[in-house]
Amino acid sequence: MPQFLTTGGTGDPFLPHLLEAIRSADRIDLAVAFIKSSGLAMIYRALDDAIDIRGARLQVLTSDYLDVTDPQALRSLMLLAERGADIRVFEAERQSFHLKAYICTRTREGETVWGAAFVGSSNLSRTALTDGLEWNLRVAPTDDAESADSRRFREIRDRYEALFGHPRVQPLDYPWIERYEARRRLVQHLLVAAGCEEPEDRYLEAAPEPSEVQREALAALAETREQGFRRGLVVMATGLGKTYLAAFDSQTMGAERVLFVAHREEILLQAEASFQRVHPSARVGHYTGARKQTDVDLLFASVQTLGQAQHLERFAPDHFDYVVVDEFHHAAAPTYRRLLQHLRPRFLLGLTATPERTDQSDILSLCDDNLVYSRHLFDGIELGLLCPFRYFGIYDETVDYREVPWRNGRFDPQALENKLATQGRARHALRYWREQGRERTLAFCVSRSHADFMADRFQREGIRAAAVYRGSPLERSEALERLEQGRLQVIFSVDLFNEGVDLPAIDTVLMLRPTESKVLFLQQLGRGLRLHPEKEHLIVLDFIGNHQGFLNKPQALFDVGSSYGQLAAFGRRARDGELKLPPGCFANYDLAIIEFLIRLQGKGPATDYQVLRDSLNRRPTPAEFYRSGSSMQGLRKQHGHWWSLVADQDDLTPDEAACLDRHADFFREVETTSMTKCFKAVLLESMLDLDGFRQPPTVEALSAQALEVFRRRRGFIADIHKDLRQVDAVDERKWLSYWKGNPINAWTGGNRKDDAKRWFEVAEGRFRPTFSVAEGEHATFQTMVQELVDYRLAAYEPRLPVATAADDAATDADATDATVTGTAEAPATGARILHFPGPATVEASPAVEGAEVPYFPDLRIACGHFRTGRTDVEETYPVPAGHGGVDPSRHFVARATGNSMNGGKNPVRDGDYLLLELVDPTKAGSITGRVMAVERQDATGDDQYVLRRVTKLPDGRYVLKAANPEYPDFEANEDMRPMARLVASWSADG
Asked: With 0-12 CB in 10 A as exposed, 13-18 as middle and 19+ as buried, what is 897?
């Protein structure tokens, strides 16, 4: 029988009694004179679970009596209000308000079936709930509705309801908190007199300070803004504090109005809590389906609501100084594009925790391809911010996943559950857990019945285990407390611990289900990577099956590309023990998994597409396909062009299929049109920004919008003539003339002598397509074109160096000699930066003798005629001694094909290895007389390469000369550009 009186102190603290009552109730009513952050934090998770998981009704009444209640505690209560709680405050003025009452009720069909009311001396403070000598009487109704206890309980609840409607009681909101904080008088001796014995800041959590990683990121963000960028992407692994980073950066920038956009309300609420701690005095509001506030300092909005045109129109384009968009790839890109085309903040920050560049494609495009800062999970471990791990990739030998139906990028839920909830698989998991598991395990299951089954199976073996999910007998907050206290050994969970819940004491993660995405996998892994004094490392037991649906796991953990070739190469490295891991980490894959990965070698573009689609749980974009390392050249050879491949995979919607039938030739042109500069793609980007296929813009408007694109995408400025590179203060008339003479002229066929189709024309001062886009297909057409433009800009971006004002003088001085054409109007804009591991850069690093550099086995440098080659790196190559210092960020190795350079003092023979160094026009110096790898694009847009000595003729023209007289020389033209200089060569036999 529950005790009638709790007396506090270490022998009978009030907190366990209160938590038990909260977790048993579907209605919770609190009336507490003084609420301190320290006390609220101790019951907050239980209150959150009551609202979020059980749908309980929560009412809280506090006061401003003696100005004791924490403003920070009031802001935390507002987070509960956003979840549906009714929070009110009694304005005391001269009236004493000293209540301490906690009423918990459980009902069934409107009738009270259980209740507990505590009335006594405990305010909501840490001391009062734990070791303070506090007396609280418990009153509980009985089965007899007319018993004394039942009448007392009803009286307490009735009096509470009457007080809740008192004239001095006001709904708590942020303006009220601001006024309260402004007038609040805090006198320490009054706290004791008021019965709140703990000092104000004794348990108050200190304001957060940026970590080392966050300070680095803040510096990078400040630098990118100094360079003129208005958008940027930051990649930070789970646990490194990307949301706090956004809060710190908005504070650093002095932003007065901040917008945080996400696709799920849970993310918005978590972000709000972080921003509140950094901006404690800010007015906070929400723009979602239920609430639409506008006049606030921090606005947290769902993209589904704010992305609609009628809601966007409520905000001027420059209304927000700072916009944060979290996890772009969770939502449809057109929704975000509409929002970002309307809003023009001083800075926009994109956030993601996903390391692999494939998943960054959409978000990177929306951030103007400006990757500002990147720190992955391994970085966090190396820096000591996350816990080392021991990873075991265990072959799921009891399940043949080929027998489970696979639809729309995921397994059929019911069929999967039937395969996983078996005695054989439970024994398999139990055996590995006994061998490797530690004391506190969090296990991820596919369904409620699967979690119940596993918990029951472990319990039968004497293991303290429980299943936890929405509606389970054991709630999330209580389960975590039991796990931390050692009263539980294993929690089998479904969807409640993927993100937003931290328990540093977790030492084992048991992955018993396939994951739909790399983000989900990393979130689950991240639950155990928090540091804890009693934990040296995290054990990860990951059960992997014989199906491509599991490929996202090595992709996520080891940043492996999505192409089958890259996955097979990863399998070989795992087999040979060559996986690169942070200090203190270990990874082992069962041989059956490794063999499965290696067998993937040799698949074609269609299979790469399927793997990428399954990894993303949606149709990939061409930019994502390109960034995954898959071959666009191979795609076009087998399928013609991108949208044809998508059609072959039955991934087109009916509207897209109809649009493809009408506009296939134009789509192919956008995908493959020759580009020696970025201008053609920038013009199309501007056209899409202006909705120009629906309402053709004037040439002046198109030109002005292109200037806006360059102001965002600063990396492309190097393509512009040096006299016009100051895009923030350019002469608009000169710019208009320049733009007419470049891409407008090119797209309207002004620089073509053949009878090829002209896709655009200028008529009555407007730039318009020469073909018709039907009214009903505009949205589909523009989305399909946008994806191709994103791909062209993504594929072009690596060719550009980082242009700075300091480099302009050097660039101008060397412009004639640093370009193959030698024309002042078409200066070379930089070498192609290949797909190097990590962020590619041409900035010099310390050169090392004999270092390993990237090796591109499929990038064959033609020593004959131009030859098409691929640039996806799958391995590294140790440069032989005697070739001097090399820097893996600038040097790379490829193979020679042909004998055009087989002559002279240093012949290059067919099959030789070539050591090459990327060139940067702003630092390259003269190329005359040097042997260079020269790049161009063929008629289909594929990259081709040739090795030749660059020679300048007296009339200023350039010739690419062969060393073997049997091969012809080439006269350089504007389609060619120097990519790398030859440093050395050696034969295959050394």
From this structure: buried
